[in-house]
Design a protein that fits this description.
Elements lengths: L11 E4 L2 E4 L22 E6 L15 E2 L17 E8 L12 H7 L21 H9 L8 E4 L8 E3 L2 E2 H4 L4 E3 L2 E2 L6 H9 L5 H12 L4 H13 L4 H29 L17 H17 L5 E5 L18 H5 L5 H27 L1 E2 L2 E2 L4 E6 L15 E4 L10 E10 H12 L18
Parallel strand pairs: 3-11, 3-14, 5-16, 6-11
Antiparallel strand pairs: 1-2, 4-16, 5-15, 7-8, 9-10, 12-13, 14-15
Length: about 450
C-alpha cells in the first residue's frame, strides 16, 4: 500500500506456492482531481455458444421495442429483462454452404465468432478467420494477466472428421487466434482454478500445489496471513467486499472438491492421480465454469471470454428434465409437435442455467455499478432452426450495458440478413479494440445505444 493509502490494481495475496488476484477495491481507485474525468471500471466481453439452434416461436418476443412478456424460452431470464437486448434477423453468411454442401453444424461453430466461411477439409489444411474475441485479445490483452479465457464442457479437437467432410477442429472451437490456429478451450474446472489462482513457475510452487492437493487445503489457507494483513489496512466497505470475494473462492473450491469425490470416490490414498475435476452433472459443470469466469472478470485477470455449452451438433440427452432423446436428433424435428416441445424444453433449460451467470455478474459491484453493467455478454447459436439448418434469423441475445453505452431492455428487429459481424464491430468499439472490418461486416451495428 502506498503512502496515500491506495493500493495497486495489480496487488495479489501471496502464500506458499499460491497467489490470489483481488477484486476492484475502493482503495485501488485513484483519487480524481476536481473537474477531471473518472474513467470507471474496465469493460468486459463474453460470448456463449449453444448448439442446434432454437425453437424460434418460443424464443422471439412478439413485439419490437421495450420488452414486455417474455416468450417461454426466455422466461428464466425474467429478472434480467432490463439488462437484456434481443436481436432479431442477425445472420452468419459464413455458415452457409456456398457450394460446399452439407456440414452446417461445423460451419455454424467455425463462423460463429469469425463470420468467415471455413475451408472444407478433414485434413490439416484448415483455414477459417480470426474471431472477435481474439481481435479484442490482440488489442487489449496486454492489460490483463490472460489476454482471453476459452472455456467449455467438451474438449476441443485437433483433427479428425466430424461433420460431412469438415474437420473436428471446426466443430469444437469458436475462438480462433489466426485463420489456422484455433484456441483450444479448457473443460476442467480444477485446471481453470489452478490457472487463475495458482502458480506453476518453479519446483517450489509445484511441490506446494501437490501438498495442497494431498491435504485438501484451500488456496485461501496459504494466503490467509497476507489477506489478514491487507484487511487491516482497508476501509469497512472494502473489508466487506474482500470477505465476499474470499467466500466465493472458497465455495468454488468446495464444489470442485465435492464433484471430484463423487466422480472418483472419497479416498485418502496419497498416490491417487490428480483428479479430473469435471462434475458429473452438466448443470453443475457449466455453473462452476461460469463462476470462475466471473472471478476472472472480477479480478481483472481477463476481459475477454468465450464459452461453449457443448460442441457442434451435440446429441446430449437431458433426462433430468425428461428429455431422454438426443438434442441433435430432436433438432431434426420435421415439425413434429412433441419434438418441438422437447427442443423448447432444452432451450429453456440452457437459459435457466445461463441465468446463474447473469446473477453472479450482477452481484459483483464496482464503483457503484455491477459487473454486468460494465460488460457485454452475447448468448446464442450459429443456426436458427435445427431442422432447416438456416444461418439467418439467428437466436441472439445481448446482456449488459457496456458501461452505459447500450440501452437494454429492448427487442431490436433489423433488416433481414443483417451480418452478425456488425454486432461484433460495435462491441469491439466499446471495449477499446476497434477494427474497420471483420469478415462480411458492413459497419458497426446501429441502434444499440
Amino acid at each position: 500500500m502506498s503512502r496515500s493509502g491506495r493500493i495497486s490494481r495489480r496487488t495479489v495475496l501471496r502464500g506458499l506456492g499460491a497467489s490470489l488476484a483481488l477484486p476492484l477495491l475502493e482503495a485501488m481507485t485513484p483519487r480524481v482531481a476536481r473537474g477531471a474525468t473518472q474513467t470507471g471500471p474496465p469493460r468486459r466481453m463474453a460470448f456463449f455458444f449453444v448448439p442446434n439452434g432454437a425453437h424460434m416461436p418460443d424464443w422471439k418476443p412478439k413485439d419490437e421495442g421495450a420488452l414486455g412478456e417474455l416468450p417461454a424460452i426466455l422466461k428464466p431470464l425474467e429478472s434480467h429483462k432490463s439488462e437484456m437486448t434481443v436481436l432479431t434477423e442477425m445472420a452468419l453468411d459464413g455458415g452457409r454452404a456456398h457450394g460446399d454442401g452439407p456440414g452446417d453444424h461445423a460451419r455454424c461453430v467455425a463462423s460463429f465468432l469469425t463470420g468467415a466461411h471455413p475451408h472444407k477439409t478433414s485434413g490439416k489444411d484448415i483455414r477459417n478467420g480470426i474471431s472477435v474475441d481474439q481481435v479484442a485479445a490482440q488489442k487489449i490483452g496486454h492489460l490483463t494477466r490472460f489476454p482471453s479465457l476459452e472455456l467449455g464442457t467438451q474438449p476441443s479437437s485437433q483433427g479428425g472428421r466430424c461433420d460431412s467432410g469438415y474437420s473436428c477442429v471446426y466443430t469444437s472451437n469458436v475462438s480462433w487466434r489466426t485463420p489456422t490456429s484455433p484456441m483450444a478451450k479448457e473443460i476442467n474446472p480444477r485446471a481453470v482454478f489452478d490457472r487463475l489462482f495458482g502458480r506453476q513457475e518453479d519446483s517450489a510452487d509445484v511441490a506446494a500445489t501437490a501438498r495442497r492437493d494431498k491435504y485438501r487445503k484451500s488456496v485461501l489457507d496459504f494466503v490467509a496471513e497476507d489477506a489478514a494483513s491487507l484487511k487491516r489496512k482497508l476501509g469497512s466497505t472494502d473489508q466487506r467486499k474482500l470477505d465476499e470475494y474470499l467466500y466465493a473462492v472458497r465455495q468454488i473450491e468446495r464444489r470442485i472438491d465435492q464433484s471430484e469425490k463423487i466422480r472418483l470416490g472419497d479416498t485418502d490414498v496419497p498416490e491417487v492421480p490428480r483428479p479430473a475435476g469435471v462434475p458429473k452433472s452438466f448443470a453443475e459443470h457449466v455453473k462452476l465454469m461460469m463462476d470462475m469466469s466471473v472471478l476472472a472478470f472480477q479480478t481483472d485477470s481477463t476481459r475477454v471470454m468465450t464459452f461453449m455449452y457443448t460442441n457442434a451438433g451435440s446429441n446430449r440427452n437431458y433426462t433430468n428434465i425428461e428429455v431422454p432423446q438426443g438434442h441433435h436428433s430432436l433438432s431434426h424435428h420435421g415439425n413434429d409437435p412433441k419434438k418441438l416441445a422437447q427442443i423448447s424444453r432444452i432451450n429453456r433449460y440452457h437459459t435457466q442455467i445461463f441465468a446463474h451467470f447473469l446473477d453472479r455478474m450482477r452481484s459483483v459491484q464496482e464503483e457503484g455499478v455491477s459487473l454486468l453493467d460494465q460488460s457485454m455478454v452475447m448468448y446464442g447459436s450459429g443456426i436458427g432452426d435445427g431442422n432447416r439448418h438456416n444461418h439467418d434469423d439467428l437466436p441472439i441475445l445481448l446482456f449488459g450495458r457496456g458501461g452505459g453505452t447500450i440501452k437494454s431492455g429492448r427487442h431490436l428487429v433489423y433488416p433481414e440478413d443483417t451480418p452478425l459481424t456488425n454486432l461484433y464491430l460495435a462491441l469491439l468499439d466499446r471495449i477499446g479494440a476497434s477494427t474497420d472490418k471483420l469478415a462480411d461486416s458492413t459497419g458497426p451495428l446501429e441502434g444499440l445505444g
